[in-house]
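Lab manual, section 2.4: Encoding a predicted structure.

Procedure: take the sequence of the chain (353 residues), apply the prediction step described in section 2.3, and record the output as structure tokens. A sample record is shown.
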Amino acid sequence: MAYINTSHKKPVGVIGTGSFGTTIANLLAENGPVLLYSRRADKVDEINKTKMSAGQTLHNHITASNDIEEVCNNCNLIFPSVPSKHFRATLKSFSPYLKPEHFLVHTTKGLDIEDLQVETSLEIEPEFRLSDIKTMSQLIIQETNVRRVGCISGPNLAKELSQHQPAATVIASPFDEVIAKVRNSIKSQRFQVYASHDIFGVELAGVLKNSLAITAGALNGMGYGQNTVAFLLARGVREMMILGTALGAKKSAFFGIAGIGDIIATCTSPLSRNFSVGYRVAKGESLDNIISTSSEVAEGLRTVDICNRIANHLNLDVPIVKTTYKVLFEDWDTKEGLAFLMDYKNQFDVDFM
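Recorded output:
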């Protein structure tokens, strides 16, 4: 059935019916109509019938659709909210229907290397190039004719947002019109929106904290307290900045809502998928079992793999990233990993500013 807009407002599109896509749709629906896209016709029928998606009750302003052309024709502002491993393919399917006047603002905290498999880690190949790595906004530019791009990032745990708890996010875009449009569409009494023109830095801050959240979850699973967690998080922020600046980001983004703010949320909460992966690994579960029993992808697995490639390629001093990689993909025991970090050579405290 074709979408019928009974509101005077133009609908906003959301691509993806996972927990965060559903959460974003509900936030947007407080200010106007929303078209929520899923490629599966049966899922669309179920959502429209039950008014439920990803375990969340949907706002009455939300209508599900599996018609890409319908979404693109009706929505000027669209939020892609799909895992990084599916992002490129999703863009390619939408590209024929997107126009330069569209606004695409993604919510995905991940990186792309074409043909990289999320579930496995590959050895660094001689042809590896930093230019092969793309943020999601760079993918949008590469795969579509849309230029007015943006991202939203911050301490935005989907379950807490779905419970209407107060929170904040950052809308990052080089274009003021994108920032204004997103703010007007999603800001509410319970959801504060800050602005940044540094889209690359904000994207990297949101991505690079993923691996740190896995490490924090592992420490929690090993039963360690706040002294240990604080030590690793502080040193982890150092590694995020080393990796980020090596890729060309400014340091300022790592001190904001999308940096420190997101670190506090996802590195201390069991609601974080990345934290949960680390916790389960520390409890002795195999990575294969964790992946097969998880309803949604933890972006941190892909992030750790890519960050390890970058670190080896540039010979960067990031022992936490390298240790996390070895624990996840080379069968290091978590206690062995922590022992390695505790015995790591002495360093200056703040050597990254």
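Check your result against the sample. Residues 118-124 have pLDDT under 50 and may be disordered.
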